[in-house]
Structure prediction request, 151 residues.
Amino acid sequence: MAGNKWNKRGIEVARTVAQWSKDQSTKVGAVVMMDDGTPLTFAYNGFARGVNDDVSERHQRPEKYKWTSHAEENAIANLARTGQRALGATLYVTHFPCAGCARKIIQAGIARVVVDASSMNEDFRARWEADMACSTEMFGEGGVEVIIQDD
Prediction:
């Protein structure tokens, strides 16, 4: 599954799903696929099911951090909700996972994470660099392969 063709396709799908997010500053998408390319779930960053995401104050930093689930977290929750296994799967995501999501990815048994290289801009790195370093270290120790996918 680490093949370039599937990595590009997975990132393309994650980019599409990211557009479904109502987050006003950063739209993140994720897709989990089996080794043969079969999609298991799609997810984006947003509020929990049924929680009103039309309240503007809930979208402002720092308040939004209390209300918003990351795309990776939502993908893993979707798998659990539908009784599917993440074990050995690949997670394609538009942005590098934070430390909290890295823990969940490792615990879910996801084998590899493919990250969209185009998201690794200066603004994103400035806000998430410390988390990215921690996530990278956890992924290494937890046996999760990380691929930064260029177009």
Notes: The chain has a mean pLDDT of 94. Residues 82 and 106 are 19 Å apart (CA to CA). The chain is about 40% helix and 15% strand.
